[in-house]
């Protein structure tokens, strides 16, 4: 009989774990900070997140175009997201990251951000129905932190960013 009881307990525990996994909210976005703003990047829009590699500057380019980087034998173009948006360039620090675009976009490139803020879910985020400041900002969200402050999050739409002539024309 003890063997039968152990099997039953195992099955009940397994069933509870499956129910719990179904209730668990999956991450939808990567949170990142560039300049004075926080951004949400859909996981399917992100390729890799890397510590800043050596970046070779390219002459006669716009100030926000940082240069080219060799990532495992591939040359990728690197833009500073904050500088592209008219803010001060992201400071280079141990927290800075290069966020590469997903391969499905066909663009070998990425953006430099000040720091990563982890995986984010929709829980706690309230969508604001306001006009986004740029076409590549998909939506604006707000969350209230424990200290009562509201934080704004901007969803970065990589597809729209890569169609923007201003972003595509890095040369002077």
Show the helix and strand layout.
Layout: H1 2-23, E1 29-34, E2 37-42, E3 46-51, E4 55-56, E5 65-71, E6 74-80, H2 81-84, E7 97-101, E8 109-113, E9 115-120, E10 126-128, E11 137-144, E12 150-156, H3 158-161, H4 165-168
Commentary on this structure:
This protein has four helices and twelve strands. The protein has helices spanning 2-23, 81-84, 158-161, 165-168, and strands at residues 29-34, 37-42, 46-51, 55-56, 65-71, 74-80, 97-101, 109-113, 115-120, 126-128, 137-144, 150-156. A six-stranded mixed sheet has the order 9-1-2-12-11-10. It has a six-stranded mixed sheet with strand order 3-7-8-6-5-4. A hairpin with a 7-residue loop joins strand 7 (97-101) and strand 8 (109-113). The chain is globular, with a radius of gyration of 21 Å.
Decide which structural class fits the backbone: alpha+beta
CATH architecture: Beta Barrel
Question: Cα distance, first to last residue?
Answer: 80 Å
Count of beta strands: 12
Multimer state: single chain
Key descriptive features of the protein:
172 residues, alpha+beta, OB fold (Dihydrolipoamide Acetyltransferase, E2P), six-stranded mixed beta sheet, globular
Summarize the structure.
The protein has helices spanning 2-23, 81-84, 158-161, 165-168; strands at residues 29-34, 37-42, 46-51, 55-56, 65-71, 74-80, 97-101, 109-113, 115-120, 126-128, 137-144, 150-156. The chain has 172 residues and is an alpha+beta fold.
